[in-house]
Amino acid sequence: MAPAYKNTKWLPLMLLAFCGHSWAEDPAATSGYKLQPGDILDVDVWKETDLKDETLIRPDGGLSFPLAGDLQAAGHTVAELTVMLEQRIRKFVPDAVVTVSVKTANGNRVYVTGKVNHAGDFPLNRPIDVMQAISLAGGATPFADTNGIRVLRREGNRETAIAFRYRDVERGRNLEQNILLQSGDTVVVP
């Protein structure tokens, strides 16, 4: 018996299964990097030379693209934005295939300040926890109060301070406090 891929009776079913898959419903396709103001995107509509552009996500979180108009991009993944653009553009170009890629990720940043060797802002282009952020800042100085570290997080109009005891995590204890940072978080090392 021949393998299924050599048997042509399976070909229509395999094509139907592949083409019928909706990437927008796939959790893996919709999870990941959340777009933020300041990000620069490359947007391309296949076979439409006039619909290829580099676009900036504005400070209000929106972006403008020909035939799609204004839409909210901040807070969405690349996959979600691709689906939104395709839905709008298909009103004018029925078979539009849109490709969106992040050219420059300027929007998602975390900040480390205080008694560290290299205080500053760092891109959040992958998941980063508190220990990794301190490492990116060159580590704590010898005079730092590593058990008094706080993560400042703003949610809407409310700001919270999350305690972080470096020595506990360093020793493998209370690891739940080594949280993943979110865009805009500030790690303060007193």
- Report the mean per-residue pLDDT as an integer: 84
CATH fold-level label of the largest domain:
wza like fold
Q: Give the C-alpha Rg.
A: 22 Å
Any guess at the CATH architecture of the largest domain? 2-Layer Sandwich
The main β sheet shows up as: 5 strands, mixed
Q: Count of helices? A: 5
**Fraction of residues in β-strands:** 25-35%
Structural class: alpha+beta
Number of domains: 2
The outline comes out as elongated
The CATH homologous superfamily of the largest domain is called wza like domain
Can you give me a brief rundown of this structure?
By secondary structure, the protein is an alpha+beta fold. It is built from 5 helices and 10 strands.
Give an overview in words.
The protein has 190 residues and is α+β, with helices and mostly antiparallel strands. The protein folds into 2 domains: 4-104, 2-Layer Sandwich (wza like fold), CATH 3.30.1950.10; 109-189, Outer membrane lipoprotein wza domain like (Outer membrane lipoprotein wza fold like, Roll). The protein is built from 5 helices and 10 strands, in the order H-H-E-E-E-E-H-E-E-E-H-E-E-H-E. The strands form 3 sheets. It has a 5-stranded mixed beta sheet, covered by helices on one side. The chain is elongated and about 60 Å long. The model is unreliable at 1-5 and 7-30 (pLDDT under 50).
